[in-house]
Amino acid sequence: MIEIEGLCIQQGEFALHNVNLCVKPNRYGVLMGRSGSGKTSLMEVICGLRPLKSGGIKLAGVDVTRRRPGERSIGYVPQDGALFPTMSVRDQVGFGMRVRLADPKRIRSRVDELSKLLGITHLLDRRPKGLSGGETQRVAIGRALSAGPSILCLDEPLSALDDVARNEMIGLLKDLHREMPVTTLHITHHLTEARELADDVFILEDGKLSQQQ
Questions:
Q1: Which end of the chain is more exposed for a tag (fewer CB within 10 A), N or C?
Q2: What domains does the chain contain, in order, with CATH numbers?
C-alpha cells in the first residue's frame, strides 16, 4: 500500500502542495499528467531520492518519511532503465539481492525465476550495450523485483518503445502483476497504458492530484 498525506515539495520555483494519494495493497496505480507537472518528482520523493518539505509517506503500513531509499522496500525503474554498463544481465537482475547479502543459491534461483517470467533467459550473459529498448526495460524490471519489494515504482518505462514493443511490454506487466502482485505506481502519459494496466488512475495537474473515477 502507498499512502501519501499532505505532501509538499518545494524546489526553486517548482512546488507541489498538500498532495494526498492512496494505492491500496496489490493494486496497480497509474499516475498521469503533462510534462513538467511533477510526476517524476513525486515518485522520487516516494522512493526517498528527493527531499520533501512536509507531509508523510507510508509504504505497506510503515512510516518511511525519514527513511533512506534502501530502507523503503521499493523496486524502482527509472525512465531510461539505468543499467550498469559493465555488468552482465545476470548480475543486473541479481544486484538487489547481492547488496542485501543474500545466499548465492537463492540469488541464482531468483534470477532464473525472473528471467523466465521476463523472457530474458537468453540474455543473461550479455551486457547492456546492444540491448533493445524493450530488452533493457525487461532487465531493469527484473532488477527492481529481485529482492521482493513490497512496492514497485515505474517511471515511464515504455516511453522509448515503438508500438509493437509497447504492446508486448503492457502484456508482460499485466502478466507479472498477476504472477507476483505488488503494489505498483506507474507514470505514463499514454492513455492506452492507463486503460490496459490501471486499477486506479491519478491525474497531476496545476500542482494538485486527483483520482479519476
A1: C
A2: 2-212 (3.40.50.300)
